[in-house]
UniProtKB/TrEMBL annotation:
SUPFAM superfamilies: Six-hairpin glycosidases. It is an enzyme of class 3 (hydrolase). GO terms for cellular component: fungal-type vacuole. It comes from Maudiozyma barnettii. Residues 138-587 form the GH15-like domain. The keyword Mitochondrion does not apply. The chain crosses the membrane at residues 30-48. GO terms for biological process: polysaccharide catabolic process. It holds the Pfam family Glyco_hydro_15. GO terms for molecular function: glucan 1,4-alpha-glucosidase activity. InterPro entries: 6-hairpin_glycosidase_sf, 6hp_glycosidase-like_sf, GH15-like, Glucoamylase. This is glucan 1,4-alpha-glucosidase. The keyword Cell inner membrane does not apply. Keywords: Carbohydrate metabolism, Glycosidase, Hydrolase, Membrane, Polysaccharide degradation, Transmembrane, Transmembrane helix.
Length: 598
């Protein structure tokens, strides 16, 4: 009763209260809407900021050429000389190797010998000709000895060039004198056979100016050097460029050692050339013509599956032109004439070189700000992610060891380019998940088994499920060792834009104290404690890719094309030449930096 009374007597208050309540409700609603719209505004600001950062990333993309002045950045950013007091970045611990270091070194040394011998076995040359059928010319290299499931007993322009390029570089290492002579025989016989192959009309085209020398893009030939006339993914426009790279590297090798072609043209065998001029005029000249006349054409990629203007094809063409321009200029300087007496080719090479550079660096093509990594086939993003180990392969073949082949050229997409490093990072992320053999190690921050590209379904014989490849896993190691070399040999600081180059997050923990300074640049000065610790970790990371290879090759040291993504066992073409040559390349890159600790 009294309560009701009270209520009644407090009517005014009651109504006031109601008013308060309703205004409270009104306020909460208002607050709700306010928060909602504020969130919206924030989201929009974030979106705009993101676009701006993307744009920034877009315009400040490290093409390698721009990176040359990286020292300038030293004054601006955050500097770390050792990791003790610093809290912006700290080094992630790396998982210790599962094998003891001396056993590992022994294994590497043994495997180098095995790889060299396996490659020699896949080439017919004057040192082993009796082991091969008579109808097979000298200088022929088979992709693999496998004749069925799959039949890889053919000669591919790409596989031959890549494999022999490794032998040429190998020459600079301490191979024995006997093996050095063999390398000359093999290279000259390869050149001889290539001159024959170039002139074969085939399903890609003819050897004629009228047909723009399109026959040179034929990807593979029968082992007896006759055309292969069945269906295939043709043309493949990387072949002539790769051959130019290999042959010019060989001619450079002769020059550096004060040797000449004439010293090695074995009189017992018939060569269609007598000297360097003949090689430039009869072989390299036409491969160059092919590039000049066809560089804008789409073609099948190095994996023989899709048609586009690919990053791999374009970069190797650019690099081949770069080398050829130098060669043509020097040749003219020394001998007063141009190969084939053609005074126009050099200018054509220079024009094409310029256009290709612009194309390589153009925005929204291979460089795609929304991806972070370099896109292999930019016009096929509807069917592919564009993520492909071909990008890494292109970077390493076009950036030979700084201390071997005197490289005063400016070829973009060097091994420290942020897009190249992000490509490796993204491949590691993706393949840690898609290959079950990586699952037990995917959290350990060590190298994992890598394949060609995430969408791959080629199992080595048919199409079912894609697997890791030896060349993919080994080339990751090569990239890392070349990265170390570029810091040590060029004595440059490690400049890290951790947000832009996600690769570095494999090695550093980022402090959350600086959440908004996403575009902060951290510099680790050359030869500082932090520098040496970082490079030590990079070296171990490189080795961990070799660990994967060691685990999955056969007990006899054999490598096929692939290894099974569930079981890790060898799969696909056995004794693939290219698997062994990539291994040699990667070991050479490792040897270059092994002694270089500060
Ligand atoms: C399909 C594969 O993906 C490709 O790389 C290969 O060259 C051909 N099949 C022929 O084996
Ligand atoms: C298939 C690979 O995709 C291709 O790049 C290679 O040339 C051939 N196999 C031969 O090894």
């Amino acid at each position: 009763m009294s309560l009701i009374k009270l209520r009644k007597s407090n009517d005014i208050n009651y109504n006031k209260e109601r008013g308060l309540i309703s205004s409270y409700i009104y306020n909460t609603r208002l607050r709700y809407y306010l928060t909602l719209s504020l969130t919206f505004v924030l989201l929009i600001i974030l979106f705009i900021k993101q676009q701006f950062i993307n744009l920034k990333q877009f315009t400040s993309y490290d093409t390698g050429i721009l990176n040359i002045n990286s020292n300038i950045k030293l004054e601006n950013g955050y500097i770390i000389t050792d990791f003790n007091q610093q809290d912006l970045l700290t080094l992630k611990p790396l998982q210790p190797s599962t094998i003891n270091p001396s056993q590992f070194e022994t294994w590497l040394t043994q495997e180098v010998v095995i790889a060299r011998n396996k490659i020699l076995k896949n080439i017919k040359f004057s040192g082993n000709e009796n082991e091969w059928d008579n109808n097979i010319p000298l200088g022929v290299l088979t992709a693999s000895p496998s004749r069925q499931s799959p039949n890889y007993f053919y000669q591919w322009t790409r596989d031959s060039a890549m494999t022999l390029n490794a032998l040429v570089s190998d020459y600079f290492d301490n191979v024995e004198t006997g093996q050095k002579i063999q390398i000359h025989d093999i290279l000259l016989q390869y050149i001889n056979n290539s001159i024959v192959l170039q002139r074969l009309d085939n399903l890609s085209g003819k050897f004629s100016l009228k047909d723009k020398y399109k026959g040179l893009a034929e990807p593979k030939f029968n082992i007896d050097s006759t055309p292969f006339n069945e269906n295939w993914g043709r043309p493949q426009n990387d072949g002539p460029a790769l051959r130019i790279i290999t042959v010019l590297n060989y001619l450079k090798l002769l020059e550096t050692n004060s040797l000449s072609v004439e010293n090695f043209t074995n009189p017992n065998y018939h060569y269609t050339f007598n000297n360097e001029l003949d090689i430039l005029s009869n072989l390299i000249y036409y491969d160059l013509q092919f590039i000049v006349l066809n560089y804008e054409e789409s073609s099948f990629d190095l994996w023989e599956e899709i048609v586009d203007r690919h990053f791999f094809t374009t970069l190797v063409q650019f690099y081949a032109l770069e080398k050829a321009i130098k060669k043509w200029e020097n040749f003219k300087l020394m001998y007063g004439i141009f190969p084939n007496n053609d005074n126009n080719l050099l200018n054509q090479l220079k024009t094409t070189h310029k256009v290709l550079l612009e194309y390589l660096l153009s925005k929204d093509n291979f460089i795609n700000p929304y991806k972070g990594y370099v896109v292999e086939s930019p016009n096929l993003l509807n069917i592919r992610s564009g993520l492909d180990i071909a990008v890494i392969l292109a970077s390493i073949v076009c950036h030979p060891s700084k201390s071997i082949i005197n490289s005063d050229h400016l070829v973009p997409f060097d091994v420290y380019d942020s897009g190249i490093l992000n490509t490796l990072y993204s491949l590691v992320q993706s393949m840690s998940i898609i290959y079950p053999i990586n699952h037990p190690i995917s959290n350990l921050n060590i190298g994992v088994a890598l394949g060609r590209y995430p969408e791959d379904i080629y199992d080595g014989v048919h199409t079912s499920e894609g697997n890791p490849w030896f060349i993919a896993t080994t080339s990751a190691a090569e990239l890392i060792f070349k990265l170390i070399e570029s810091y040590r040999v060029e004595e440059k600081p490690i400049v890290i834009d951790i947000w832009k180059t996600k690769f570095w997050s494999l090695f550093f923990h980022e402090s959350n104290k600086f959440p908004w300074q996403k575009d902060l640049i951290v510099t680790i000065p050359y030869n500082s404690i932090a520098f040496n610790m970082t490079l030590d970790n990079l070296f171990k990371y490189g080795d961990s890719f070799f660990e994967v290879v060691r685990k999955h090759m056969s007990h006899e040291g054999e490598m096929s094309e692939q290894f099974n993504k569930y079981s890790g066992f060898l799969q696909g073409a056995s004794d693939l030449s290219w698997s062994y040559s990539t291994f040699l390349d990667a070991i050479r890159a490792r040897n270059k930096v092994q002694g270089l600790t500060a």
